[in-house]
Sequence to fold (332 residues):
Amino acid sequence: MKTITINEKWCKKCGICAAFCPKKVFDRDEDGRPVAARPEDCIGCRLCEMRCPDFAVTVEG
Amino acid sequence: MIKDYLLEEKLPLFWCAGCGNGIVLQAILRNIDKRGFTRENTVITTGIGCWGKADDYVTTNSFHGTHGRALPFSTGIKLANPSLNVFTLMGDGDGITIGGNHLIHAARRNVDLVAIMVNNLNYGMTGGQYSGTTPKHAITKTSPYGHVENGFDVCKVVQAAGAPFVARGTVYDVVQLDKLISKAIDHKGFSFVEVISPCPTHFGRSNKLGDAPKMMQWIKDNTISQEKAAGMTRDELQGKFVTGIFEEREQEDYSTAYQKVIDSLRGGENE
Ligand SMILES: Cc1ncc(C[n+]2csc(CCOP(=O)(O)OP(=O)(O)O)c2C)c(N)n1
Ligand code: SF4
Ligand code: SF4
Ligand code: SF4
Ligand SMILES: [Mg+2]
Fold:
């Protein structure tokens, strides 16, 4: 299973990672912060990482 | 590791939430990393603007110039040391508005560098005024009733000026963007990539395009491949972003041509 990490210090809660994940892996909490709620669905395309404007997403594994 | 080229102690980035600049910066650093360029043999030059702050975040050599003049500085750097890998980052205000003259002449001279113009359709840093790429009818701080001018097709300008590699991508299609930057790096000569990117704070807000994901969707919805665009009229293409590689050909670059002159004169001396 992939490990998806969000750097909370760098993330600006823009929502891009969550909106365009092809497998809808992310939820957003009440502050809009992304949470990788369904990592088991992740296909490792790394689009969330590449589209994050703040270098805040890392997909490993 | 891409993080080797990122000055992490400077983060979080100064740019607004959802600004496309960071996506472009990541794509550039990823490609620099892939080639194993060193901090010493790489120079990132910028002008002024939000995108012009990009050099603050890199561990390579960098040169923060004046507004619209990143290319003249880069030309000098390349002339002094042609072995350097030079990346010139410009905004649309920087690159084609105040700096348009430098852009066409650097393209004409065929200076061997990678020029990346982030086109967010306005002057982000100074509060969202229109630039030379703002489309007709768009609302900006200086066109509150709709812009009366047409925006440049910057790729066509650069192509006409003589650049041997010219392409346009978007921050939505990051996979294509990665490839375009990669090809630009591998191409000898003036390699120009225009990147369509959101400024949610000004252009987005003024034109009621919604939050950052909605603006990304807007870019996606208005993007057309050059293959598809080939069958469309000028009117149909108004406000659309045509993506792809528009020019890709071999042509002797400035430093090589200059070196030949130097060599020929040196040869003459020895006779
Ligand atoms: C000679 C000069 N004229 C004007 C300015 C003010 N100025 C700073 S940034 C900017 C426009 C930036 O727009 P763009 O290049 O599109 O970059 P963005 O902020 O959108 O990334 C202007 C007009 C300046 N710094 N120097
Ligand atoms: S794309 Fe990056 S900055 Fe935006 S919400 Fe996701 S992790 Fe945060
Ligand atoms: S790597 Fe792809 S599938 Fe996995 S979370 Fe990121 S965008 Fe979704
Ligand atoms: S003002 Fe626009 S271009 Fe500047 S950082 Fe904010 S979103 Fe980006
Ligand atoms: Mg701009």
Chain A is about 15% helix and 25% strand. The pocket of thiamine diphosphate (ligand 1) is lined by residues B 48-51, 67, 91-94, 120, 123-126, 131 (CB under 6 Å). The CA atoms of residues 22 and 47 of chain A lie 9 Å apart.
